[in-house]
Design brief:
Shape: globular
Radius of gyration: 17 Å
Distance between the termini: 5 Å
Largest sheet: 5 strands, antiparallel
Structural class: mainly beta
């Protein structure tokens, strides 16, 4: 088991976990999100993201076009100020794999969340 600690601020998407080239799929056993903002609630999106490439047409010298696919685990889930949301593998299974990353996006530029991920 290993723990991953992240302090996330702002409204830009952030990669929480990704596998290295030789990793086997890793199960996230628990993940918690603690809203540490002084006064405001935060909405979070938690999602898998991976790249696919469109087929290259003959005589197209630009190369394949990359398309990003996102599949949401949580979408616009509100966490009040000072509250922690905890999820476990009993709620659903989240895997870290070579094929995709797990990302989080917060609702506002002044949002702040601490994330703790426990893997198996």
């Amino acid at each position: 088991m290993s723990l991953i600690y992240k302090h996330i601020t702002g409204s830009d998407a952030v990669t929480l976990a990704e596998a290295t080239a030789n990793d086997f799929p890793t199960l996230i056993t628990t993940i918690s999100f603690c809203n540490i903002h002084a006064t405001d609630s935060v909405d979070i999106d938690l999602y898998y993201s991976w790249s696919t490439f469109l087929k290259v047409e003959e005589n197209n010298w630009d190369g394949p076009e990359e398309v990003i696919d996102n599949h949401y685990i949580l979408k616009s889930v509100t966490i009040p100020q000072g509250v922690t949301l905890s999820l476990s593998s009993e709620d659903f299974e989240i895997y870290i794999s070579n094929d995709y990353t797990i990302n989080i996006k917060l609702s506002a530029s002044d949002s702040a969340v601490d994330v703790i991920i426990n893997t198996k």
